[in-house]
Design a protein that fits this description.
Layout: E1 9-14, H1 34-51, E2 54-59, H2 68-71, H3 80-84, E3 91-92, H4 102-115, E4 125-128, E5 135-137, E6 142-146, E7 153-160, E8 170-172, H5 175-178, H6 182-187, E9 194-200, H7 206-218, E10 224-227, E11 234-240, E12 243-248, E13 254-261, E14 281-288, H8 291-298, H9 308-323, E15 329-333, H10 350-362, E16 373-378, E17 389-392, H11 393-399, E18 405-413, H12 414-417, H13 420-426, H14 428-432, E19 508-513, E20 523-529, H15 533-542, E21 553-559, H16 560-571
Parallel strand pairs: 1-2, 2-3, 7-9, 9-10, 10-12, 16-20
Antiparallel strand pairs: 1-13, 4-5, 4-8, 6-7, 11-12, 13-14, 15-17, 16-19, 18-20, 18-21
The chain binds ligand L45E5XJ5.
Ligand L45E5XJ5 binds near residues 100, 381 and 440.
């Protein structure tokens, strides 16, 4: 373990938690739950007070979709909003997942925004009031506040990236337009000690570059602390010597830690001015979300660590999981199936399993069962690995929380249909001409990781015999986990791990079914998930086939997630 470096102003960040408030039940290294995180934050606040420094909490969105405790209830999130709000968060923003479905955006506006009144920021996001149709800010555009112990004057913004897939009750204004608005131009002229830009935005992306330049154009040396999200990775980015960004991974695996020293604050009310330190310095850590680490970082133990509020939240999580029967076993996975830890195609690839075993059986409707069919799904529709053992109700939402259904273009020329998979996988520029990013079809982790990373102990790696990072012979062996390299080097993880292999996967995979044995068919049904409809139409157009949304017909009534769960019930026994 590596200790956390403290500064004058310190932060804990969560992002892309996607409903994993119960922690990871199958992975001990990420097994702390939201209640434990509440206790951790509270104990760290006590430590900050004792040291006379400040601690702020940040969350940058995508709190929902991706775990049974949110997705399995009706309405979705029946239990999660009340549990989540038990954590005090100083700056909180919206992710794209809060906006895909209109009911989720309604709940965000009606529950999360008031739960975090004053702290919920929406610099470039509006909501359409359902009764009047009036377009109003989702929450306040920014906030100015002074920190409790050192009196540091902070101005915080809350952004979302230039997202276009939102439902029709929200409006995401492009960042480039927002930063020209009067209120933003006035805000960046405020005299503050620090700007915080929190958002569901990747750190090196064009949105944060534009915001950085806008703030710098008015404040040549005020420190700026960015907090990012969306790409599901641990990341730290340098904008200039006084501006850095932190991103705390995904799925409650990581809690981000940031500390800044050398800020020219005013000091506590009544106290003399804060002595500016010699120079400004920024430090970051990525905390593995488990109790062992929480005890280590707080210097407490099993009996002294938990707070009443944390214990109550953990109890509420347990009760909600019971009420939703999330441990109900649908079948036993015979082995681990990996999204990115095994190459595609291979026997251990989750995508190979889907392509060869599952999709040919589930992408069928009785009235078209004998028609030659090409079925395409995007790899991003799968969100997590499947571990050997019980595949529960919870797991169904963990691997794919979306409510996407299958749709089809019927009787399309095979010569055109057979080109779609390759176009979606490799013709990014062709699709970009229609304003579509092919990379959005793949898992978000792949946004940042552009080539395979081969770790040690990997049966698929050439040689497969690299030595793990053992420091001394008598040290316990390290376990596989994050080995982050970022703009500050490779010292960021609070826990040392051996690296995990990451293989890139294609944007889409395809299964063929009911093809004649002797010759190519003349026509086929092209079946795909409704989410990828714009990409498929655009690829078809490129082949010279001008289909439109009117030509698309539903292909069955169940969601892809339900179809996969049915397959598992039929094929995997109950003997784990
Ligand atoms: N109905 C949907 C919605 C999204 N996806 C995939 O998820 C990606 C976005 O994930 P984040 O957690 O980073 O927001 C998106 O790019 C798609 O790949 C999907 O498959 N179906």
């Amino acid at each position: 373990m590596r200790p956390l470096p403290w500064g004058q102003l310190n932060f804990l960040q969560t992002t892309d938690t996607h409903g994993w408030i119960a922690g990871h039940l199958q992975e001990p290294q990420y097994s702390a739950d939201w209640g434990d995180y509440i206790s951790f934050a509270s104990r760290m606040r006590e430590k900050a007070d004792f040291r006379g420094v400040d601690l702020l909490l940040i969350d940058t969105g995508d709190r929902i979709e991706g775990n049974g405790i949110y997705d399995a209830s009706t309405p979705k999130g029946k239990y999660t909003y009340d549990i989540f709000r038990e954590q005090e968060i100083d700056v909180i923003t919206t992710g794209n997942h809060e906006l895909y479905q209109t009911d989720a955006a309604d709940r965000e506006y009606e529950q999360t925004v008031p739960n975090y009144k004053g702290n919920y920021l929406a610099s470039n996001l509006d909501y359409i009031l359902p009764k009047t149709g009036e377009q109003v800010p989702m929450a306040q555009r920014y906030r100015i506040f002074t920190t409790k112990n050192l009196g540091i004057r902070v101005l915080a913004f809350g952004f979302i990236f230039d997202f276009t897939g939102n439902g029709n009750n929200t409006v995401v204004q492009p960042v480039g337009k927002t930063i020209k608005e009067k209120w933003f131009q006035e805000a960046i002229r405020e005299k503050v000690d620090l700007f915080i830009v929190a958002g569901h935005v990747t750190l090196p992306g064009p949105e944060y570059k534009a915001i950085f330049q806008a703030i710098r154009s008015q404040n040549w040396d005020t420190p700026i602390q960015f907090f990012g999200g969306h790409s599901h990775i641990r990341d730290y980015h340098k904008y200039d010597s006084k501006s850095y960004g932190l991103q705390a991974g995904r799925y409650m695996e990581t809690v981000g830690w940031m500390s800044i020293d050398g800020i020219k604050g005013k000091g506590k009310a009544g106290a003399s001015d804060l002595e500016p330190r010699a120079s400004l310095s920024f430090q970051r850590r990525y905390i593995d979300n488990n109790l062992f680490g929480y005890h280590y970082h707080t210097g407490l133990n099993e009996s002294t660590f938990p707070t009443k509020r944390g214990i109550n939240a953990s109890a509420a999580i347990y009760k909600a999981r019971k009420a939703l029967e999330l441990d109900h076993n649908f079948g036993c996975a015979p082995k681990d199936l990996w999204m990115n830890r095994a190459p595609y195609p291979s026997n251990d690839s989750l995508y190979t399993w889907l392509e060869t075993e599952v999709i040919p059986e589930i992408a069928v409707i009785p009235e078209r069962k004998d028609i030659p069919t090409l079925a395409i799904i995007n790899t991003g529709t799968i969100r997590f690995d499947i571990f050997k053992g019980a595949f529960t109700r919870d797991t169904t939402y963990i691997i794919s929380p979306f409510i996407s259904k299958l749709v089809s273009l019927k009787d399309v020329p095979y010569d055109a249909a057979k080109r779609v998979e390759a176009l979606l996988n490799s013709a990014g520029q062709v699709l970009q001409a229609s304003g579509l990013q092919a990379s959005q079809l793949a898992p978000p982790e792949q946004m940042a990781v552009r080539s395979n990373i081969i770790g040690p102990h990997n049966p698929h790696a050439a040689g497969g015999t690299q030595t793990p990072l053992i420091l001394h012979n008598d040290d316990p062996p390290l376990i596989p986990g994050y080995t982050t390299k970022d703009d500050a080097g490779d010292e960021g993880d609070d826990t040392l791990h051996t690296p995990i292999t990451f293989y890139n996967v294609p944007n889409v995979i395809q299964s063929a079914r009911s093809f004649p044995a002797d010759a190519d068919p003349e026509k086929v049904d092209l079946v795909f998930t409704d989410f990828i409809q714009p990409w498929v139409l655009s690829a078809m157009q490129f082949t010279g086939q001008n289909y439109t949304a009117h030509d698309i017909a539903p292909y069955g009534n169940e969601t892809l997630t339900e179809l996969m769960a049915d397959w598992i019930k039929r094929h995997w026994g109950q003997q784990c």
